[in-house]
Amino acid sequence: MKKIFTLLFLLVTLQMVVAQESYTPSVETLRYKVMFKWGFIQKQAGTVTLATHTFDNGYFKSTLVGRSATWADKFYSVRDTLMGTIMQGSLEPVYYEKIAREGGEFKRDVIEYDRSTDEVIGNCHRWREHKKNKEIVHSTVSISGTGTTLDMLSSFYYMRHIDYPSMTPGQSVTTNIFSGTKKETLKITYHGLKDVEVDGKKHTCYYIKFTFTSGNGKKSSDDMSAWISTDSNRIPMMLMGNLPVGSIRCYYMP
Description:
- It is a single chain.
- This protein is mainly β.
- It has one domain (2-252).
- 7% of the residues lie in helices and 58% in strands.
- It is built from 3 helices and 15 strands.
- It has helices at 2-10, 70-73, 154-158, and strands at 28-38, 41-56, 59-68, 78-87, 93-102, 105-114, 119-129, 137-146, 149-151, 172-179, 182-198, 201-213, 224-229, 236-242, 247-252.
- It has a 15-stranded mixed β-sheet with strand order 8-7-6-5-4-3-2-1-15-14-13-12-11-10-9.
- A hairpin with a 2-residue loop joins β11 (182-198) and β12.
- The two termini are 28 Å apart.
């Protein structure tokens, strides 16, 4: 449940290439409301803000802030901040940091990348402070991947360059992704065009699903769905993932 909730906070900026149009990162701020739905119950559970900023020497920085609503804090409080430095050309990361306060626990992850060889090395540092033990525990690990290797923040910029209009429904793209101190596989599957209603307006969108799997090939979370606008902005209009009870939906706020 915790991972699904966190991933939905992350999944807020996906863009595609269509026809003669292309996407390059630019200064922008995207805002979302996170809704909890269970049967006839639908209540705002939090907000997400993602800012793309500070372009310099072929790199840009990105910051994402997610927080749960006051009523949701009583069940599971979330205060997450993600920061990253990403290469403008390849959209691959050189630095990633996540500071999270979730369910009364403190977590901090830092990944620094070494791309000096064909194999991508991630030097990962992790700090943890659990509710029952106030001592902060620090650990380090080195993980590696061959080919395109991303993290939880840079992956959503990288997806903007996937040519979905040239794909047939059911076709997918797969990349490596470093999550904390482990390597996972992210598969993005295109399922064609689909209409979605957001804020009383209907939008024709690219409908895609995301699957995260661990090293042994098992799913590390339930699949998630996204509806991406087909205009030049390529804004995710709605994102959805299931919880053990109910579901979470993220709606774009213009």
